[in-house]
Every structure is written in structure tokens, then in C-alpha cells.
Amino acid sequence: MAAPGTSILHRQNDPDLLLLLKAASVSHSRAKRLALAHIWLSLLLAAVGVAGVFVPALETPGTLLGLMWALAYAAGARLRGITEKRRAALLQEMFDVRLLGLPWNTVLGGGPAVPAQEVGRVARGYRASEERLRDYFYEATALQRPLDVLACQLQTLGWGARVRRRYATAVTYGLLVWSLAGVVTGLAGSMTVSDLLLHWFVPSLGLLLLGVETAAAQWDTAGAREHAQAVVMDAMRAHVSRGCPAENVPELLQLARQVQDVLLQTRLQQVRVPDWFFRRFQSNDREDFVQAMRELDRLGADPTV
After folding, report:
1. How many domains does the chain have?
2. Considering the domain boundaries, does residue 185 fall inside one?
3. What is the pLDDT of residues 127-139, one digit of tens each?
4. How far is it between the farthest Cα atoms of the chain?
5. Among residues 168, 149, 31, which one has the least CA distance to residue 89?
6. Structural domain of 169
7. Is residue 152 part of a domain?
8. Which pLDDT tens digit goes with each residue over 23-68?
9. Is the residue at 19 inside a domain?
């Protein structure tokens, strides 16, 4: 794909790119709602099973329902949202490659991309303010191509790694608290190990499986993005220190496509974190990444920074 003639800063708010962002936002929301439905169902069944500890009439139904949900989840109930998750990832990928001027990877993304009529149909479901989608990247304006492309990818890598690592930590603590609560309840009620397993952990097995899978996927995503972030930063500094030779540009653009592959693969593996969790830290994270982009801006102006 030919290098765009205008800066990323200006092109990111073009109507056709905003349409892609709207469609991606709607699709991501649908995928998250499916994931949230699994969470609530797991919590409900776990609660019914735990209630059986105190209400004998709920003991057998709670245990059986919890076990059935765990088996259904392990057998593939979690796969129901794969289609929506994949579409959301591909729509986001379409936005990225068109804005950054990168080639489409037909091996990972398939081909062709999401049809234009499908993009328009999904985008019509967007109900929030368009202003939320504007200025998607805080571009380091002093950087020239391909450093501007890599700078934008650094923002996505850094922000995504931070949010997902934070969410994985929260889920892990939640699992530990739930397990500890079960042990405390068992000790307080003088329950045997088999009774504790049967009346607490079997009903909540679906919840535990979901939590472990979610945390593991988010840890993996964070690790992959942090590794890519370090590689990109080293490449940018090396390029600037050598005076930004033109012969290195193809190599850096190839690196940018490899970074985009990491982003696409991790988006295909796990849905985004819940909106409420993302918004909880959004303001502080945004300030940090605006500052990070300013540092890159200074790097482009003065390689000794």
C-alpha cells in the first residue's frame, strides 16, 4: 500500500475511517456482551450452589447445575462469541492498516476484508457520540514515516498491555478471594474436604474455568504486546541514532507489519476488557500515553534525548 500523503494526525478523523471505528466499536461491544453473559451465568450458578450450603433444598440442584455449566463451557459454549470477536478484530485491523498505510495480511486476516456493506450495516448500530472516536492516536507529530507508524503502534501496544495486565491481575485476585472464602466457609462449618468440593467448588467450577482462562489469555496478550513494544522502541532509537537513513525504511515498515500481526493475533484470542473496567483508569492512562508520545516527539527532533 502506498504511503499516505497526509499525516496520521489528520487522516484518523476521515469519515471512512470513523465509519470503521464505529463498526469495530459495535462489534467489540457485542463480543463483550457475550463474554459478560458467560460471567453472569457462572456467578449465578455459583451463588445457587453456595446457597445450598445454607439451604439444603438448593444443595442438589445447585451442584448439578454448576457441574452441567462447567461441562458445557469446557465442551465449547465459550466458542459462541468467536464469530463476533473475529469480526471485531478484523474491523479494527482494517482501520489500522488503512490509517497507517500497511499491507493486509491475508494469512491472518483472510481475504477479502469485511465487505463495505457489512461495515455500514454494523456501524449503524453505533449510538454513542462520534467525538469519542476522534483523535484515536496521539501522534508524535515530529516523526516522519515510518517512525510515525511505529509511534502509533507503540501507543496501542502500551495501552493494551497495561489494561489487560491490570484486568488479569483483578481476575486472579477474584479467583483467590472466592477460593479462600470457600475454605473459610468449610472450616467454619466443619465440612469435610469432599463436602467442601461438592457444595462450593463444583457449583462454581464454570466460574473458576472462565476466570482461569480469562486471566491466562490476558496475561499472554500483555506479555506479547510488551515484548513487541520493547522491540519497536529499540528499532526506533537505533534508526534515529543513525540519522534516519532512507535504506532502513523498508525494514522498519516490515517490522510495523509484524507488530500489526501481534496486535491482530492478540485481538483474535481474547475480547477487550469490560467497558466499566477500561473507563475506571482511562483518564490516568491517557495522560501517561500523551506524555509518552511527547517523549517520542522529542526523540524525533533530537536523537540524543
Report:
1. 1
2. yes
3. 988 888 888 887 6
4. 76
5. 31
6. 10-121+138-301
7. yes
8. 999 998 888 887 777 777 777 777 777 776 666 666 666 667 666 7
9. yes
